[in-house]
């Protein structure tokens, strides 16, 4: 991992758009950044039309002044390639670069990301712009990091244009080698879909009925790879001109962004950066934030990462855009730091006066510096300076929760037993149970090395490779407690059903066999024999005689309905560990209760057992100047009451000693450098 050049301590700042403001405001910005403790800003993200107002004519004056001014005030720059939105002259001259929907509708300019990533014309212009920016600022002292494009694929991830069709065919030919192999993988004997050449294949455009599911799945894969290839072309241009400057782009590692496989992107990035925004009407939004931070850390393979964007207060794109309290702004920021972020940045520095995002909050709000948001911005900057010793330390966990973008794509295809299934909702159901148990979780890809984890949670891993299924089985043999939920292991990488009964790839591990899914109707519930309630999903499951090893034991059965007496939850001893199967969607209380059993079996306790419910506790571990281990205990009080927890060391934000007991006010955060 490479870190932005010459950025001391934790990075702090946000997107900065000086081109939107007069000169006097730009000069004030630099002074205010010093006051707030800002040391890194992203510049030039949407500036293509300002830098190149007419084709081949450049105006660098405002950006030259900005770079010089920021450097003079000791603020480093994550300089963007300015390619995130093509200028009007380009789309007017080359309308063929515009993306299209599955229905054939052209997505016109007037917004942002009005380009087809598959268009060679667009890419050539983007590379030319990238080269011009890189050559201009290659030796500038303020340049700390390259910021490629912006939220790549946020609005145009799936393009169905003719350029995309040609690129999709090239991708398929590379993947399969022959049209015969594609026909096998896609099962084209069904509905007379057999192809005799790659030229006959189209993206999954609007059709009279369901489009071939493997065609849809491959289009997801192609789209992610095509966006990545765009990033890599720009990165190669930057690397040639500035080989020592790290390159990143802002990913969107959240439960709402599914269109790119960020685990495949990660090895190509010098540092992982992400954007995250909470949903105002979600009462458990702080838990979703924790999950997204843990997912980002998983994408970063455990390395420290950058929070490139979040909000100081309200956003502009939800139905009702609620403001944040100062305490929530600080908790949101430090929750990311607790879970591995070494940078806290916002969209944006100064709240826009015009445009679609003028009601999106910023570090300097419309109200100016005589405002609660500004005072909190300054306070957060002071807190991050006090937390400088945390930089470079890492988070570790005894629990792995497996998450796979490609399984997400496959699980949410049409024509399934339950077509309302939400993969992230099912993942979050188990993550919330772990969060409420006070246990830190590594959210990782199924292909991650799992040895060393004492518990592994596998929610709705509908599609899984043979290799990954074997690795999950192996970690149970080695001593881990593995929990697999329903609709897991069902299909292979071609979305073809694994025959012989469900849960397919995990049948041997779990020692169960379901011959038929039995979905519950909307609003329907089914009582289990322990008094808990099942919803949404059930299965006609049997526990056959074990031909190898111990047979599975029934933990909970259905107590009513057509499956009365059938197993709902089972457990099987596997080697030194165990395989648990949950064949239904348990209510929240039963989910938490089962998770407690799993953790107890695995010998895993809460990070800080004395922490009351609603208090988030995470540890980061690093090395001191003498080489000994140092731990940082983050305690975030999400409750409305004062709490006390056991802790000893030095609280960094208040610079006071803590001797056995830490008192934390409602909504507040503490970070204790613990005694060795």
Question: In what order do the strands lie side by side in the largest sheet?
Answer: 5-4-3-2-1-9-8-7-6
Task: Please outline the major beta sheet.
Answer: 9 strands, parallel
- Helical element count? 17
Helix content: 25-40%
CATH class of the largest domain: Alpha Beta
End-to-end distance: 28 Å
Number of strands: 26
Q: Structural class, from secondary structure content?
A: alpha/beta
Which value, in Å, is the CA radius of gyration?
26 Å
Q: How many domains make up the coordinates?
A: 3
Roughly what fraction of the amino acids lie in strands? 15-25%
CATH architecture title of the largest domain: Alpha-Beta Barrel
Shape: globular
Uncertain runs are none
CATH homology superfamily name of the largest domain: Glycosidases
The CATH topology of the largest domain comes to: TIM Barrel
Report the average pLDDT across residues.
97
Structural write-up:
- The protein folds into three domains: 11-87 and 117-157 and 223-387, TIM Barrel; 399-602, Rossmann fold (3-Layer(aba) Sandwich), CATH 3.40.50; 615-674, Sandwich (Immunoglobulin-like), CATH 2.60.40.1180.
- It has 17 helices and 26 strands.
- Strands 5-4-3-2-1-9-8-7-6 form a nine-stranded parallel β-sheet. Strands 11-10-12-13-20-19-18 form a seven-stranded mixed β-sheet, sandwiched between helices. A five-stranded antiparallel β-sheet has the order 22-23-26-24-25, covered by helices on one side.
- It is globular.
- The mean pLDDT is 97.
């Amino acid at each position: 991992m490479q870190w932005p050049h010459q950025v001391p301590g934790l990075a702090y700042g946000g997107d900065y758009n000086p081109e939107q403001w007069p000169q006097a405001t730009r000069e004030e910005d630099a002074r205010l950044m010093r006051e707030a403790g800002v040391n890194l800003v992203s510049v030039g993200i949407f500036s293509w039309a300002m830098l190149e107002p007419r084709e081949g004519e450049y105006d660098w004056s405002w950006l030259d002044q900005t770079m010089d001014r920021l450097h003079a005030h000791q603020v480093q720059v994550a300089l963007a390639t300015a390619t995130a939105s093509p200028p009007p002259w380009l789309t007017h001259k080359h309308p063929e670069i515009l993306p299209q929907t599955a229905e054939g509708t052209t997505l016109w300019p007037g917004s942002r990301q009005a380009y087809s990533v598959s268009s060679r014309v667009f890419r050539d212009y983007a590379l030319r712009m990238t080269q011009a920016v890189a050559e201009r600022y290659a030796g500038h002292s303020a340049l700390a990091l390259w910021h490629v494009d912006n939220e790549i694929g946020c609005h145009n991830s799936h393009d169905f244009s003719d350029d995309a069709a040609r690129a999709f065919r090239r991708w398929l030919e590379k993947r399969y080698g022959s049209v015969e192999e594609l026909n096998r993988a896609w099962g084209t004997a069904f509905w007379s879909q057999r192809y005799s050449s790659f030229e006959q294949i189209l993206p999954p455009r609007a059709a009279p009925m369901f489009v071939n599911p493997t065609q849809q799945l491959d289009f997801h894969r192609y789209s992610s790879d095509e966006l990545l290839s765009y990033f890599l072309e720009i990165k190669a241009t930057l690397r040639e001109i500035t080989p020592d400057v790290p390159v990143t782009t802002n990913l969107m590692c959240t439960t709402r962004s599914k269109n790119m496989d960020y685990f495949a992107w990660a090895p190509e990035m010098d540092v992982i950066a992400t954007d995250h925004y909470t949903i105002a009407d979600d009462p458990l939004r702080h838990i979703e934030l924790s999950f997204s931070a843990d997912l980002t850390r998983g994408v970063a393979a455990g390395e420290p990462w950058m929070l490139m964007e979040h909000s100081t207060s309200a956003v502009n794109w939800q139905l009702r855009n609620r403001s944040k309290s100062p305490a929530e702004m600080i908790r949101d920021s430090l929750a990311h730091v607790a879970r591995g972020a070494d940078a806290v940045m916002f969209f944006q520095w100064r709240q826009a006066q015009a445009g679609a995002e003028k009601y999106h909050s910023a570090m300097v709000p419309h109200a100016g510096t005589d405002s609660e948001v500004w005072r909190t911005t300054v306070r957060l900057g002071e807190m991050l300076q006090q937390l400088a010793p945390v930089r470079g330390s890492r988070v570790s966990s005894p629990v792995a929760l497996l998450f796979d973008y490609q399984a997400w794509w496959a699980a949410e295809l049409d024509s399934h037993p339950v077509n309302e299934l939400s993969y992230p909702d099912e993942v979050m159901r188990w993550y919330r149970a772990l969060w409420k148990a006070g246990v830190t979780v590594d959210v990782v890809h199924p292909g991650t090395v799992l040895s060393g984890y004492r518990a592994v949670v596998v929610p709705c891993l509908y599609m899984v490779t043979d290799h990954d299924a074997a690795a999950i089985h192996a970690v149970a043999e080695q001593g881990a407690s593995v929990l697999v939920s329903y609709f897991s292991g069902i299909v292979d990488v071609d979305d073809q059903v694994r025959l012989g009964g469900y849960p397919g790839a995990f049948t041997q591990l779990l020692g169960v066999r379901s011959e038929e899914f039995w979905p519950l109707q909307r609003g329907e519930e089914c009582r289990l024999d322990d008094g808990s309630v099942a919803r949404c999903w059930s299965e006609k499951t049997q526990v056959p005689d074990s031909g190898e090893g111990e047979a599975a034991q029934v933990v909970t059965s259905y107590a009513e309905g057509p499956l009365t007496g059938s197993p709902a939850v089972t457990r099987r001893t596997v080697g030194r560990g165990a395989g648990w199967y949950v064949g239904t969607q348990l209510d929240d209380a039963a989910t938490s209760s089962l998770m407690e059993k799993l953790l107890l079996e695995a010998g895993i306790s809460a990070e800080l057992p004395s922490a009351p419910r609603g208090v988030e506790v995470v540890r980061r571990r690093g090395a001191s100047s003498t080489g000994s281990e140092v731990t940082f205990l983050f305690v975030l009080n999400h409750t409305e009451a004062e709490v006390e927890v056991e802790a000893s060391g030095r609280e960094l934000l208040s610079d006071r000693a803590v001797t056995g007991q830490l008192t934390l006010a409602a909504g507040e955060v503490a970070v204790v450098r613990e005694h060795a």
